[in-house]
């Protein structure tokens, strides 16, 4: 920069100057675009400063000798006035935020059961050409209970990306990855990991009635069972198994009301059956009280299509070695007057096949539903074992 005497043109002072890179540090609010200063207003606000301090405010005359500078300033102001607010703001945001690159995760999120593992790969790419870039990453568990590998700072990643392994410890969690390449920093990436939830209800609560009529050796006898029970899903079976096997449900509570009635007359001797009481269904080695539920959508043994894909079984019984007793009264001709007691039938309910569906499953054992939250039906069973029964049941899922 030179200082001269205007009348004689003599240079009286020179000071070195250097160019300065100017950058915009914030986006312009849309409502301010129409109120930006004009070039003349911008000129009048500028000052020139040398090594010796301020040398005064510039005027328009100082710029007349430099048309390119004037045109550049006018173009900048015109662009700000005419450019769409959203596009202009995005351009400024990218420039000030160094967003020349972007990092992406594949997959963008994970869903894992407690204790299950999964993987994702983070790759940095250029915004302009989408070309994958070698990068360096800072990695940490941002929140939640999660085992993540690798973690740390300045982890090198090839252009193909950095692969991660995540193991859920229950609940929701987030992995955080920050990448940088020779083109710049990518916005910090957060990968959410949610816990896989069971699609099956947590519990089933319902009621049923089973009626035994003319059991073997007991013509005229009727045993009626009215029961209520709650079954809960076995928590040790992971949700991933629901599309593969029959999921077991354990008995949580039950109330069984039973009654025996009926009579028959033979050779002048009348036999009367009577009795009533309560009991509970318990797990035992004879019937194995419990419930199973299987989604057979992907099972090769299931029909295609299958409008009722939820196959189930329900069993409730008590220990036959400690069964409640009912009374048998005989009366009539001489020698016919006796009173005895015998155990009731303690298979209180037994429907469906407990085993996983296969080509070997007897069709007569299949019980199914089109609604996973409602298991209901009615059937008469006489399988030749001498225990013909009539069953009606309804269980509704919750949780």
Descriptive report:
This protein is mainly beta and 399 residues long. The protein folds into 3 domains: 25-96, no CATH class; 101-195, Immunoglobulins (Immunoglobulin-like), CATH 2.60.40; 203-398, no CATH class. The protein is 10% helix and 47% strand. The chain has 4 helices and 28 strands. It has helices at 39-44, 61-64, 67-82, 85-96; strands at 2-4, 11-14, 47-50, 53-57, 101-106, 110-112, 117-126, 132-133, 135-143, 146-149, 152-157, 162-168, 173-181, 184-185, 189-195, 203-213, 222-233, 247-261, 263-266, 269-279, 290-295, 310-317, 325-332, 338-343, 347-351, 368-369, 374-381, 389-398. The strands form 5 sheets. Strands 16, 17, 18, 19, 20, 21, 22, 23, 24, 25, 26, 27 and 28 form a 13-stranded antiparallel β-sheet that branches. Residues 17-27 and 49-53 have low confidence and may be disordered.
What integer value in Å does the Rg equal? 42 Å
Can you tell me the residue ranges where pLDDT is under 50 for at least 5 consecutive residues? 17-27, 49-53
How far apart are the first and last residues' alpha carbons, in Å?
81 Å
Largest sheet: 13 strands, antiparallel
Q: Let me know the average pLDDT.
A: 82
Fraction of helical residues: under 10%
Number of domains: 3
The helix/strand class is: mainly beta
The count of β-strands is: 28
Strand residue percentage: over 45%
Shape: rod-shaped
Count the DSSP helices: 4
